[in-house]
Design a protein that fits this description.
Bound molecules: zinc ion
Number of helices: 10
Largest sheet: 7 strands, mixed
CATH architecture of the largest domain: Alpha-Beta Complex
Shape: globular
Number of domains: 2
Structural class: alpha/beta
Strand content: 25-35%
């Protein structure tokens, strides 16, 4: 680490000062790890669509100004008092929900719903910075065969659809899965669906993204700009999918997802639509459709995902790499749909 900079000003970070303004690249002070915390030298941090919501003012951060960046991996360079889980030099990925460990949700293994949650890079300073601090119990050691870039992408773009499909959608082998939205999460949802033994239909409006879905194992692809995706999915699956996951977060795609499942089908909502979605409740009743929300991930999901990535059975997809100074360009390209997953790499 840069010992002469430690604790001093002079380290660069990408700071959201105000919504609807570019991120400001500025000098910040290195955070110091408190009791139970670690300081991580960030090696890679993913560019996520959620950040665009914060930058656009559609969703709110817990504070302003704030250093964004919640998909991070790096090396532990300092440990606070009371830390026994990790030591200096460990390569780690950061689970971005900082939770209390005491509320009813934490105590029942649903810490992603913690009543006192603080989201890394959303409520507290994140990892678009050279150093970031996190509670030691929020870091997961990264297997030696997994790169820092792959570990960073695993913390959200892989672990979120993994949690949604495995524990919320309860996807099983032989079932039909339809994935709405082949972006950074969708391309991993396709892989996870195949890993679980499902038949996978991928839906998007861009041919390029559908090609990517096929490359990562989708059995069928549907271009929703050319055909009615609901009719097409029903035809392919012989009456409707068992599980539909919406990662696009559009009013239309949620509506499509609900109509794409068979009776007793499960719809898992992960993408945040910009406005409330009208649902035909009569149809939901008659067909006994189950609509579930899935929020982020739990610590164990990240551990499981990193072990799958280490085995090579899930491959994190990274389309673009940026330096921290190029982050605004990266987000503009993400907004235009040009990135599958962009990552800021350091050093
Ligand atoms: Zn994210
Ligand atoms: Zn809690």
């Amino acid at each position: 680490m840069k010992a002469n900079n430690h604790g001093c000003f002079g380290l660069k970070a990408a700071v959201l000062r105000k919504p609807r303004e570019p991120l400001s690249i500025e000098d910040v002070k290195t955070p110091r790890p408190g009791f139970g915390e670690v300081l991580v030298e960030v090696k890679a941090c993913g560019l996520c669509h959620s950040d665009l919501h914060f930058m656009d003012g559609v969703r709110r951060t817990g504070k302003l100004p704030i250093i964004l960046g919640h998909e991070a991996a790096g090396v532990v360079v300092e440990v606070g008092e009371g830390v026994t889980e990790v030591e200096v030099g460990d390569r780690v990925a950061i689970e971005y929900y900082f939770t209390c460990g005491r509320c009813r949700y934490c105590r029942t293994g649903n810490e992603n719903l913690c009543e006192n949650i603080l989201r890394f890079g959303m409520d507290v300073d994140g990892a678009f910075a050279e150093y970031a601090k996190a509670p030691a119990r929020n870091v997961v050691k990264v297997p030696g065969s997994v790169s820092m870039v792959d570990a960073a992408v695993s913390t959200d773009a892989v672990a979120t659809p993994y949690h949604a499909l495995r524990y919320v959608g309860e996807l099983r082998g032989g079932e039909w899965l339809v994935v709405y939205g082949i972006g950074g999460l969708g391309v991993h949802a396709v892989q996870i669906g195949k890993l679980f033994g499902a038949n996978v239909v991928a839906v998007d409006v861009l041919e390029e993204k559908l090609g990517l879905a096929r490359r990562y194992g989708a059995d069928y692809t549907v271009n929703a700009s050319e055909v009615d995706p609901v009719e097409e999915v029903r035809a392919i699956t012989g009456g409707g999918a068992d599980v539909a996951i919406d990662l696009a977060g559009r009013v239309k795609t949620v509506e499509y997802a609900v109509k794409s499942v068979r009776s007793l089908g499960r719809v898992v909502c992960v993408g945040f639509p910009p406005e409330p979605v009208p649902i035909d409740v009569s149809d939901v009743i008659v067909r006994k459709v189950v609509i579930k929300g899935s929020r982020g991930l739990r610590h164990t999901d990240l551990e499981e995902v990193l072990s799958l990535v280490a085995k090579g059975v899930v491959k994190p997809v990274v389309s673009h790499r940026f330096r921290l100074e190029e982050i605004n360009e990266g987000y503009e390209r993400l907004r235009k749909g040009e990135l599958i997953r962009g990552v800021v790499v350091y050093g």
